[in-house]
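User: I'm writing a tutorial on reading structure tokens. Could you give me a worked example: one chain, its sequence, then its tokens, then a sentence or two explaining what the tokens reveal?
Assistant: Sure. Here is the example chain.
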Amino acid sequence: MNKTIFPAAALFVALLLAACGGGGDLKPTPTDAPATTASSSGSTTASCGPTGSAIAAIKREGKHAFASFPERVIDPNKTYTAKMETSRGVITIQLDAKDAPNTVNNFVYLSCEGFYDGLNFHRVVKTPTPFVIQGGDPRGDGRGGPGYIFNDEVSPNIRHDAGVISMANSGPNTNGGQFFITLAAAPNLNDKYNAFGHVTAGMDVANAIVQGDKILAVSITES
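And here are its predicted structure tokens:
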């Protein structure tokens, strides 16, 4: 799939996911607000590896603004697992690099760079039924992003079942840094959002998250 990258100098669009229709749908809202501030209370033990890999070479600087979409650091033929440390516990996520290589590359790079360290889950929708938890916004209000956007990457092999991680967006081809994890099956989201992995452990933690809880850090393993 071809991807078009829009730098921060162009129109910057981020995402606010809003619940409507009883939690059964997502209504994206565009904004031109830049990413500016965030908490810096990340984990000091987070790591990316194995040693000698491209992801191990990424320096964890905790930046929240980038000039462009990151260069390729993953191998779609390898297996990537994210360990998301939160203030409620650990959520382990298997990333689908084969079906969503651009999206996984983006998430892996931002994770290893420390982009997510210390950020809040700024939106949690559990009523009237469990729906999603959303994070990855440096501003903490649903309006921030990494300074670039990239194209949709939708695979028929990844559906929005419970425990799926997917990119939030404000319309077609406006993915950035924000993500959500589904708390229940949401088939209405299929083919609209970049699903790129699923929770393999810690779904109880995901269900316990409340608005304002923190992502302490995200570690990535490659095998």
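What the tokens reveal: The two ends are 24 Å apart (CA to CA). Residues 1-42 have pLDDT under 50 and may be disordered.
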